[in-house]
Amino acid sequence: MTSFQLNGKTTxxxxxxxxxxxxxxxxxxxxxxxxxxxxxxxxxxxxxIVDGVAQQSCGLVTESLEGCDVLTPAALQSDxxxxxxxxxxxxxxxxxxxxxxxxxxxxxxxxxxxxxxPAREQIIDTLNRHLCRCGAHARILRATxxxxxxxxxxx
Length: 155
What we know:
The protein is an alpha+beta fold. The protein folds into 2 domains: about 1-70, Beta-grasp domain (Ubiquitin-like (UB roll)); about 75-155, [2Fe-2S]-binding domain (DNA polymerase, domain 1). Helices cover about 35% and strands about 15% of the residues. It has a 5-stranded mixed β-sheet, covered by helices on one side. Helix 2 (about 80-90) packs across helix 3 (about 100-115) and helix 3 packs antiparallel against helix 4 (about 120-125). The longest helix has 18 residues, at about 135-155. The chain is globular, with a radius of gyration of 15 Å.
């Protein structure tokens, strides 16, 4: 049995210790907001925040999360920083197909929770772990800059 916080709620899962977290989150936790992409840690679609750090859930075995705090994209709306990042992406129309965006939102939220004034190189490095086949990179960078400006103005 593995117990962890999932979006603020205690979750206990049995018999899934060696399974990658992405599979456990999608089934049986029914967290369909976590995307399954490549399954080998190359695309970033399955990124979640674990104890404040953005991680690709396909590379985490469930039993390693005992006592951890796991956030999925569903938690962004109620998160003070995540909600601003999410709204900036909506306002700037930064998603085209939307498949990769959930993972990017998680990575950017984790970055901004650590540093409200990241250098452009930090933003690019953070996004470099994510594949976007639609070519929305310019809009994604613009949305990130909008979110940073809103957070600095708010703070």
